[in-house]
Amino acid sequence: MEDAKIIELYNARSELAVAETERKFGKMLFSIAMNILSNREDSEETVNDTYGKAWDSIPPQKPDFLGAWLGKITRNLSISRFRKGRAQKRSGIEIMLSELEECIPSSENVEAESENGEITAAINRWLETLGKEERIFFIRRYWYGDSVSELAEKAKIPPKKLSSKMFSLRKSLKEFLEKEGIAL
């Protein structure tokens, strides 16, 4: 079913909207949650929370890209759930977030600047400068939360080589954001 039809179902308050959302996007949303939470039960609950948030938000919202919009909700809910229940040991999500700390502004700056979309727009401009493979690596790592070893296996390259490439990408992003005047 097309995204516009699913949104129409939400607007009509039809429970079929949630079923169609699950059918079309459920695996992707579960993958995002699982990559962050590493726990099946928490991931399933987070995806269900995503459906509830979509139900509560449409209407009035009408997302242009339903899958991306739902993915963002799932990612944010997963990170919130992770932060609430994290243990002392460093997990995949902590490592992933710490990798980005050097090139993404502090949370105070992010909150202030993200409201007007400056950081998002700058990151999107930077992503457009990358080749397809680099862009996929960056998005799969830092949006979907794939591990370096998973990405390396899919790309059939050594993990150390990919780690080096990811380091270069983070450095490039940091330099780009600094040139754009975004305080780090």
Verbal overview:
The protein is mainly alpha-helical and 184 residues long. Helix content is 75%, strand content 0%. It is built from ten helices and no strands. The protein has helices at 3-11, 16-37, 40-57, 66-85, 92-100, 107-114, 118-129, 132-142, 148-155, 159-179. The protein starts with a helix and ends in a 5-residue tail after the last helix.
Structure, briefly:
The protein has about 180 residues and is mainly α. Helix content is about 75%, strand content about 0%.
What does the secondary structure layout of this molecule look like, with pairings?
Layout: H1 3-11, H2 16-37, H3 40-57, H4 66-85, H5 92-100, H6 107-114, H7 118-129, H8 132-142, H9 148-155, H10 159-179
Helix pairs in contact: 1-2, 2-3, 2-4, 3-4, 9-10
The radius of gyration over CA amounts to 18 Å
Count of discrete alpha- or pi-helical segments spanning 4 or more residues: 10
- The gross shape turns out to be globular
Give the helix level as a range of percent.
Answer: over 70%
Distance between the termini: 42 Å
Which percent band covers the strand fraction? under 5%
Biggest sheet character: none
Please describe the structure with a list of short key phrases separated by commas or semicolons:
single chain; 184 residues; mainly alpha; 10 helices
